[in-house]
Amino acid sequence: MAVRRVVPNIRSEAVGESREFYGLLGFEEVMNHGWIMTLGSASTPAAQVSVMTEDRTAPVVPDLSVEVDDVDAAYEAMLQRGAEIIHPLTDEEWGVRRFFVRDPNGRVVNVLAHR
């Protein structure tokens, strides 16, 4: 299994202000679903940060997202380890397959792959 990118997720009600702040560091809006906005670097597209007011289909806002090439294998590995699954493996309407798992530090990780 290969990691494609890692994106920190910031829970915030200051979405516009966050866009302006991170824009000063060279980030541009690359996705906006209303409840989640992702900002990325034009020169390094995998360098991203997401700002979220909520998670539309999951019970919590994850602390970070890890995009992998095989989300099903990642899910099975976490189940075999006995990890705490916060949000089950789900095909989301916006084109990702994902699940949430709690890491040893108590952080919630959104593990995903694009379909």
UniProtKB/TrEMBL annotation:
The lineage of its organism: Bacteria, Bacillati, Actinomycetota, Actinomycetes, Pseudonocardiales. This is Glyoxalase-like domain-containing protein. Residues 2-114 form the VOC domain. Gene3D superfamilies: 2,3-Dihydroxybiphenyl 1,2-Dioxygenase, domain 1 (3.10.180.10). PROSITE patterns: VOC (PS51819). InterPro entries: Glyas_Bleomycin-R_OHBP_Dase, Glyas_Fos-R_dOase_dom, VOC_core. It comes from Streptoalloteichus tenebrarius (strain ATCC 17920 / DSM 40477 / JCM 4838 / CBS 697.72 / NBRC 16177 / NCIMB 11028 / NRRL B-12390 / A12253. 1 / ISP 5477).
